[in-house]
Design goal:
- One of its GO terms (cellular component) is plasmodesma.
- One of its GO terms (biological process) is defense response to other organism.
- Keywords: Membrane.
- It comes from Gossypium stocksii.
- There is one protein chain.
- The chain is mainly beta.
- It has one domain (about 1-35, about 55-120).
- Helices cover about 10% and strands about 50% of the residues.
- The chain has 1 helix and 8 strands; from the N terminus they run E-E-E-E-H-E-E-E-E.
- Strands 1, 2, 3, 4, 5, 6, 7 and 8 form an 8-stranded antiparallel β-sheet that branches.
Length: about 120
């Protein structure tokens, strides 16, 4: 059977190229063949310094009815095939989410009706 060990996971949110939340670290875990795992964390940015234009940019995007956020996850993984375990590989995930505002916006903050794109690199 094939599985993956995930380790040193770090998540944060980016808005227009600027990190807007502190790093959040997730515990290591193993994902077996055809298993899925739900990861949860709290991403907060209170007190994090941002560019002077941040308020203007957010207001502009809200007026336009949408805001684009990137959830970034960095980490390391090891492959397990039978009893063999690989060396560690670094990986990066970039999840792009478009959130809509206004009367036609979905009621859930991140609903399945919203536009999203995810890319992974190793």
């Amino acid at each position: 059977m094939v599985g993956i060990y995930y380790d040193e996971l770090q998540a944060f949110t980016v808005y227009k190229g600027q990190q807007i939340t502190f790093d959040s670290f997730l515990p290591p875990f193993y994902q077996g063949h055809e298993e899925s795992n739900l990861l949860t964390t709290s991403l907060q940015g209170t007190g994090l310094p941002v560019a002077l234009s941040f308020g203007y940019e957010v207001e502009h995007d809200q007026t336009a009815g949408r805001i684009v956020l990137n959830l970034k996850v960095f980490g390391k993984l090891k492959w397990k095939v039978g009893t063999w375990v690989s060396c560690r590989y670094r990986f990066n995930v970039n999840y792009v989410s478009v959130m809509y505002f206004g009367p036609n916006a979905p009621t859930a903050l991140l609903s399945s009706n919203q536009v999203a794109q995810c890319s992974t690199a190793m």
